[in-house]
């Protein structure tokens, strides 16, 4: 009954704020055990599709010509070190943020974004940081972050809850992972960022090992009897 009432409420919702409220109710019910995993994911997909339809009917009101926005102009996002950004992006994408079947649908830049998003969901339960912060950590642009989240939402992997405020700067969106396959992958994966692991010293090195004692019990050396054994270089993984 709970799932059926929510499904009817989603179909009857006419505003984004109402849909955001219903999204919150869905996950509250899931936490309380009122809806199963399959039911919660089905409702999340239905809500995402309904939100797309509602958003398409909204006609934004533009600012009249000659009037400036009440918000300051957004500064251009220019990386201080482009090579470091590219290296960070590749390291995050190569760390395996998604199962291979899902990762094949995203680009390298999008995979880096989804790694940052997955780390936030694993540590805090949801991603609450801004698009600019995700872009800085992933080494990509804002538009790449928006593209990655939009693609993941269209595939039913995540839900996006908008937090709009009238006359004020909007709060960061709340992004939750609803794909059980992705959630299980995150739980099995490493908890440390690949960037922090890369900074640690790697094991390896050479060490001169002590030679075996060649003196027999009678006090004579085996070398005197023609044994030409010599100390050998061995690989030591502790250095």
Labels describing this entry:
mainly alpha; 239 residues; 10 helices; two-stranded antiparallel sheet; Arc Repressor Mutant, subunit A
Q: Can you characterise this structure?
A:
This protein has a two-stranded antiparallel ribbon with strand order 1-2. A two-stranded antiparallel ribbon has the order 3-4. The model is unreliable at about 195-210 (pLDDT under 50). Helices cover about 50% and strands about 10% of the residues. It has two domains: about 1-55; about 75-200, Winged helix-like DNA-binding domain superfamily/Winged helix DNA-binding domain (Arc Repressor Mutant, subunit A). A hairpin with a 7-residue loop joins strand 1 and strand 2. With about 240 residues, it is mainly alpha-helical. The protein is built from ten helices and four strands; from the N terminus they run H-H-H-H-H-H-H-H-E-E-H-H-E-E. This is MarR family transcriptional regulator. InterPro entries: WH-like_DNA-bd_sf, WH_DNA-bd_sf.
Uncertain runs are 197-209
Whole-number total of structural domains: 2
Text of the CATH class of the largest domain:
Mainly Alpha
- Please state how the strands of the largest beta sheet are arranged side by side: 1-2
For the terminal residues, how far apart are their CA atoms?
63 Å
CATH superfamily of the largest domain: Winged helix-like DNA-binding domain superfamily/Winged helix DNA-binding domain
- List the helices and strands in order: HHHHHHHHEEHHEE
Helix content: 40-55%
Biased composition (Polar residues): 209-223
Protein name: MarR family transcriptional regulator
Biased composition (Basic and acidic residues): 224-239
InterPro entries: WH-like_DNA-bd_sf, WH_DNA-bd_sf
């Amino acid at each position: 009954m709970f799932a059926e009432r929510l499904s009817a409420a989603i179909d009857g919702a006419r505003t984004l704020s109402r849909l955001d409220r219903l999204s919150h109710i869905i996950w509250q019910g899931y936490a309380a055990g009122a809806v199963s995993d399959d039911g919660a994911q089905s409702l999340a997909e239905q809500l995402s599709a309904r939100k797309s339809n509602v958003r398409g009917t909204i006609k934004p009101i533009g600012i009249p010509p000659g009037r400036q926005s009440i918000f300051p102009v957004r500064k251009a996002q220019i990386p201080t070190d482009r090579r470091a950004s590219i290296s960070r992006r590749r390291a995050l994408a190569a760390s395996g943020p998604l199962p291979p079947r899902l990762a094949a649908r995203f680009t390298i830049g999008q995979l880096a974004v989804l790694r940052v998003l997955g780390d936030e969901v694993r540590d805090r339960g949801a991603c609450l940081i801004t698009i600019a912060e995700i872009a800085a950590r992933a080494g990509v642009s804002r538009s790449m972050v928006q593209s990655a989240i939009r693609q993941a939402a269209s595939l039913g992997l995540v839900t996006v809850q908008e937090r709009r405020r009238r006359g004020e700067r909007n709060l960061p969106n709340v992004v939750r992972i609803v794909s059980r396959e992705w959630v299980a992958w995150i739980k099995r994966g490493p908890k440390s960022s690949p960037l922090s692991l890369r900074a640690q010293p790697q094991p390896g090195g050479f060490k001169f090992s002590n030679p075996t004692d060649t003196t027999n019990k009678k006090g004579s050396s085996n070398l005197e009897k023609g044994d030409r054994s010599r100390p050998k270089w061995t690989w030591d993984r502790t250095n």
